[in-house]
Amino acid sequence: MKVDAPPLLPLLRSQVQGEMLALLYLHPDTSYSLTEIARKLGKSVPGVRNEVERLVRAGYLRDRRVGNVRQVSAATDTPVYRPLTDLLLVTFGPKPVLVDLLAPLAGVDEAYIYGSWAARYTGESGPIPNDIDVLVVGDADRDELDDMAHHAQQNLDRPVNITRIRRTAWNSAEPQPFVQAVRSGPLVSLLDDRRSAE
Fold first, then answer.
1. Which residues contact 6 (CB under 8 A, 6 or more apart)?
2. Alpha-carbon torsion (122, 179, 40, 101), positive or negative
3. Could you give the CA distance from residue 13 to residue 34 in angstroms, rounded to a whole number?
4. 15-90 in CATH: which number?
């Protein structure tokens, strides 16, 4: 079965490969089991295992056994580590970066990336996104969201625009035009990883 290259970084062979490399390279001090990687990415363990095999053989990932569990991490001692990390940060990086920044915030009921980055992430071809649009549903503190946007912008090297709306506006039977527009396009959830860790 032919797998299409991901629009965010068509140099890679698959979306799974891009998401997995971003998870591992943007958390270089953490080792994950294949099951943890599959759960965090919402992918199958066999699909993750196939990508891990290729990347371990090529020297991009390290693996080790801890009892019966195979632990995988980024290979940080190679010449490609820094440039690949930088490339992953500006392509696949928005999701893991924003998941990490949202984790400590209270009052976040739902959170999504929408717009051009979400379209590329979900497979729609097009130019490299110039900014990241984030929707936060709930009553999170606006100052904390502004701080989060500032940190994300520094990490991702592009503007990060955060819009907060109340749950009632998001769930309204007659939503405002902005909500209709956001709901009609691709959405990338930023709470899946956080909820699976709880």
1. 12, 14, 15, 17, 18, 92, 120, 121, 123
2. positive
3. 19
4. 1.10.10.10
In the chain, where are the structural domains located?
15-90, 95-197
pLDDT profile of the chain (198 residues), mean per 10: 76 91 96 95 92 95 94 97 96 95 95 97 94 97 97 95 96 94 96 50
Give the position of tokens 């290729």: 54
What's the full length of the chain, in residues?
198
| 8 Å CB contact between 38 and 44 | yes
For residue 11, the model assigns a pLDDT of 87
Strand, coil or helix: what is 161? strand
Distance CA 3, CA 124 (A): 14
| Domain 95-197 in CATH 3.30.2010.10 | no
State which H helix or E strand residue 49 sits in.
helix 45-57
